[in-house]
Amino acid sequence: MKKVVLIGYMGSGKSTVAQKLAFQLGKVPLDLDEVIEKKMGMTIETIFNTKGEIYFRRLEHELFLEVLQDANDVIISTGGGTPCYYNNHELLNSDHVVSVYLNASVDNLFQRLIEEKQKRPLLANLENTEIKEFIAKHLFDRSFYYNQATFKVLVDGKSVDDIVAEIENLLA
Questions:
Q1: d(CA 107, CA 161)
Q2: Of 14, 132, 148, 154, which has the fewest beta carbons less than 10 angstroms from its beta carbon?
Q3: What's the pTM?
């Protein structure tokens, strides 16, 4: 089996879906943000705040490459910006990768992210009234990269089980 890479905006459910999908397929789930945090011994937020986004994106790219080159079949959940930097989007359809874009609407993302904005470095300093516009702009800016995925799954109004079943059908 090829590696399965889940991409999409923050709050689209990548980590949760990866856990459940990996369980269903008997594979190992791998969260790229957790790999980065373990390697650095600090949270993503701390890396952003102390080293800056450029440093973070370079590190993210290096570790993404390592994970993709690993021999194990894994279900990888990426950060929301992973496909958008260092040509990572070109890796989404390489010979040993199948990628799935978890596509959520601006309203859905806003509802999910408003509750956890302090855990999200890109949102932490925004007023609640600014967040929806920020999400909409980011989705527009990132849509080219997200749409490079092998498959697109709309997640609005679906349970995790429904999303996982849809991805399993696409992979069959």
A1: 21
A2: 154
A3: 0.94
Three-state SS string over 77-92 comes to ECCCCHHHCCCHHHHC
Angle (CA) 146 78 10, round 5°: 70
Give the span between the Cα atoms of 123 and 125, in whole angstroms: 6
